[in-house]
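Late entry, written up from scratch paper. The run itself happened at the end of the previous shift, but nothing got recorded in the book at the time, so transcribing now.
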Amino acid sequence: MLRLKSALTKTVSRMACRLACGVVAGVNLPSGTAVAEAPSAGEIALPQARAMAQAAESKAVSNGTAIVVHVVDAGGRTILVERMADAQIASLDLAERKAISAVFYKRPSAAFETALAGGKMAVLALPHAMPAAGGIPIFHDGRLIGAIGVSGGNNAQDEQAAQAGLAAMKE
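Output as recorded:
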């Protein structure tokens, strides 16, 4: 029984690795996909996360939505969470899931939404994949340093707010 469990664990680990790379699901970054390059020395500092949240929230106000912004480091650990007044409670979890999806797969969560809409049902089996726009990874010198996740509006509005947050990271 122990041998079977060990073999199963190794097989699942190999599958997860292949899935994370998009090999099984065939999820690729769409051309023209924005991925932020951070100006810092390789980590997202709290003041940067605050600036990102503020910019995302400003965009949400202009869109007439109330959002939650979740910024994580490269390990998916929370750096900052902000919830606007009147943002739905579910957005707390959704914003985190979008950010973690972006970190886990090194691609925007919108890529999974697109893949699912294209009929790639395997996306639903990917661990930590969130098939909804609004989660975007952040890279510095080609190395993943974190992600921003936004939830509260529709997926297009969440993506716009996340992009506004990324623009603040570049400043």
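Residues 1-33, 35-40 have pLDDT under 50 and may be disordered.
(Scratch paper discarded after transcription.)
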